[in-house]
Amino acid sequence: MESPSFLDYLFLFIVRPLLAISFAVCFIALWWFLAWKLVLSHVPLVQEIFGLRKKTFKPKPESRGRISKFYKSQNYVPQW
Fold first, then answer.
1. What residues contact residue 46 under an 8 Å CB cut-off, 6+ apart?
2. Would you say residue 44 lies in a domain?
3. Model-level pTM greater than 0.70?
4. How far apart are the first and last CA of the chain?
5. 11: domain range?
């Protein structure tokens, strides 16, 4: 019976585990990429965490409430 050579041990203890780990990492990366493209990139909380969407601040208009509209229609100037 022939004894295993150095290359057989090398393949058994180094190459096979590296191939298994790389396969698992590629498999997880593929599914993460698909989940990101299909679902996660559309979730507002995830967009805010990763800085994908900038918050826009709109300035408030001068006459924004009912009270200011009332005083403008009356031409009333308050005496402070």
1. 40, 52
2. yes
3. no
4. 108
5. 6-74
